[in-house]
Amino acid sequence: MLSEKRTIVPLISSGLFDFQSEQFYMRKTIGCGIFSFVVYAIASWMLLTFAVGWPAIAFAADEKTAAKSKDEENEPPPKPKAVTLTTADQIPLKATYYPGSKEENSIPIILVHATKGDRSDLEDLALYLQGLGHAVIAPDLRGHGENPHFTIKPADYDAIIAHDMEAVKRFLRDENNEKKLNIDALCIVGVGSGAVVAINYARADWSYLPLSSGKQGQDVKALVMISPDLSIKGLGAKDALADPLIRANLSVLVIYGEKNSKAAKEAKLVYQAFERYHPTPPPAEALEKQDLFKVTPATALQGAKLLNEENFKSDLQGNIGKFIELRLVKKAFPWALRRNPLEK
Questions:
Q1: Contacts 24+ apart (CB under 8 A), 176-179
Q2: What's the pTM value of the predicted model, to 2 decimals?
Q3: 102, 200, 235, 314: which could form a disulfide with 133 (CB 3.0–4.6 Å)?
């Protein structure tokens, strides 16, 4: 956590959820008058919970339901387990799976590490998200982590998107069909070059149009891009950022340290590519309809170093968790059995 002297100031002005200079604020213009004051007060209290975690005030509820919820909260999440995935081109991939605890209501989340990184960089985030009930999987991409190492070439990034990420999704689809998660509410978190992989895989997923026999894709509904690169070894984000389906259908959270000018410049370009297609909702509808956010700590740290820095870790995890709650958990995507329509 940050220093106890930190001030947490929720403001309403421009529609962006920011973390800057050790302050959290959402901008949105509020008019004058009593109604606006009431909207401001309610929205400020609710937005404060986005920055610091769950609300401190509980609404009245049936005692039996409340007791059941308390028992579920006290129950430890399932133990993470090591899994080995096999890609379509027969490459084995090591991964860690953190099962969800909400059965078919569990949100599936794929964590994608950066070049020269591995899944261990995202372990703390995975455990935090699992603790919220989500089903999280963190793979080592080919050539990384516990997999055989080799020099990654541009063609390998095409294979990572076409085969590695698809193998991860196939695993999640199988979990979906056992009612252990809801694949239709898929979130991908990408760090650094992993963010380029994430958005390009989201584009590929949305290119699979539904067949009469069922859905093939269009499951990725949210992206968290931490210190996103614009390109890596020939794989760029430009085409994916320009894709109308990506612009229109994804909720996006961009995180970067604002004190590193190069990294901040690239991350801002990513954010701005979405900005014009995600209009700012009215203040009273912000929590329900806002689907583009940014978090910009006052630091030069980026990527996994930013995510795991003790001064920022708790707040960043809380913001990611709240983003997923607002854009996926509360949207209640219907669960469905998902067979691959191309498989017999």
A1: 176/104, 176/108, 176/335, 176/337, 176/338, 177/337, 177/338, 177/339, 179/103, 179/104, 179/335
A2: 0.81
A3: 102
Give me the residue label for tokens 């953190």. 98
Contact (Cβ atoms closer than 8 angstroms) between residue 316 and residue 227: no
Name the region of 106 (left: φ>0; alpha: ψ -120 to 50; beta: rest): beta
Fold of 78-275: Rossmann fold (3.40.50)
Looking at residue 214, what DSSP letter applies?
B
* pLDDT of amino acid 341: 61
Q: Could you state, in order of their start, the residue ranges of all structural domains in the chain?
A: 78-275
What is the C-alpha separation between 206 and 101, in angstroms, rounded? Answer: 27
Q: pLDDT digit string (tens) for 214-229?
A: 788 999 999 999 999 9
Q: How far apart are CA 321 and CA 124, in angstroms?
A: 13
Cα(first)–Cα(last) distance of the chain, in Å?
51
